[in-house]
Specification:
seven-stranded mixed β-sheet, 2 domains, about 350 residues, FAD/NAD(P)-binding domain, alpha/beta
Length: about 350
């Protein structure tokens, strides 16, 4: 079990800015997100689309905004827990909060900040009887863990959009797998032209094999997944032998266990005050799209404001006293936390 002052749930723009604001208060946070990367909904849904309403940035993409926020949080040595769900959150006898994760971590926190947007983004799963027993061994949603060795194995990537094409191309270019197949119901893929051109080059070179078919079932031998049962566009059936399956079918938000944490809710959103964005449970704060209050607006800018006040509120609760307002322009303490030298007078 790890003891910490703060846990932030959600690594979208508001969660990242929450980490930054906590850092300015001298509070280092553990940051948890269901996705394997930072950026949340902003990267998943608007990764390459323009955003025009971030103060001081006339235009940037969701991916660029996440990158800038990561730079901003860099001085604060955040403890990351990516590709991880929060499985339980319970109040302890001493008022601290025990956060348990799907990866087995136990974090005993003095404060928790829920910045989960519309919920945790989780992979869309295959609707094939019996496939679930192989998840985590031979079936890996969205991407292969770094610990999985593909050497000499047949890897099937399943999906028709850009992430699936990119995953297949990446595996083929690594050159370790014995065979890389890209399985989709049609031999038509939605991806940028440059990526599609690379896919065609790898197909022409025999390094990626496209399978235009749909999965109807699986073949097994003991505790092994041995083949996929497929149906081709003309209705004929066949088996495709494989070693590893990577379904890349997109992601969808789910509120998940938040609803079971005993926090007051209204229409699947967490009710907060507007002084420090505290929920009904002491020590738990909610910022961004996950919360609700009179006049709430679901804007990134509003989430930044909420994260700032939540950080001040938490710092005062942890200290048991008021926290003096300091400015990053002039405060030697904040300069030290940020690792920057103060500007010298001209």
């Amino acid at each position: 079990m790890v003891e910490t002052d703060a846990v932030v749930i959600g690594a979208g723009p508001v969660g990242l800015f929450q980490v930054f604001q906590l850092g300015l208060q001298g509070i280092t946070a553990h940051l948890i997100d269901a996705l394997p990367h930072a950026g949340g909904q902003c990267v998943e849904l608007y990764g390459d689309k323009p955003i025009y309403d971030i103060p001081g940035i006339p235009v940037c993409t969701g991916r660029e905004l996440a990158g800038l926020l990561l730079q901003q949080t860099a001085p604060f040595k955040t403890q990351w827990h990516l590709n991880t769900l929060v499985s339980a959150l319970t109040v302890q006898a001493d008022g601290r909060l025990l956060v348990e994760t799907s990866q087995g971590a136990q974090l005993l926190a003095r404060s928790v900040f829920i910045a989960a947007g519309v919920g945790a983004f989780v992979p869309r799963t295959l609707k094939v009887d019996g496939i679930e027993r192989f998840v985590g061994t031979q079936v890996h949603y969205q991407s292969l863990p770094a610990t999985v060795d593909v050497t000499g194995r047949h890897v099937v990537v399943h999906g028709g959009d850009e992430p699936a094409v990119a995953r297949a191309v990446e595996l083929a270019e690594q050159g370790q797998a014995a065979r890389v197949s890209l399985l989709h119901r049609r031999d038509v893929f939605q991806a940028p032209d440059a990526l599609l051109q690379r896919l065609q080059q790898l197909r022409d070179a025999g390094r990626i094999h496209v399978e235009a078919a749909q999965i109807t079932g699986i073949d097994t031998a003991g505790d092994r997944l041995t083949a996929l049962q497929l149906v081709d566009p003309d209705g004929s059936t066949r088996a495709l032998a494989l070693d590893l399956l990577v379904p890349v079918l997109g992601i969808s938000p789910r509120l998940g266990p938040i609803a079971d944490w005993g926090i007051a809710m209204d229409r699947k959103q967490l009710v907060v005050d507007t002084e420090a964005f505290r929920t009904s449970v002491p020590g738990i704060y909610a910022v961004g799209d996950i919360n609700t209050y009179p006049g709430k607006r679901k804007l990134i800018l509003c989430g930044f404001h909420e994260a700032t006040l939540a950080a001040f509120g938490a710092a005062e609760a942890l200290k048991g006293d008021k926290v003096a307002l300091q400015y990053t322009t002039t405060s030697p303490r904040l300069h030290q936390l940020l690792g920057v030298a103060p500007a010298t007078a001209a």
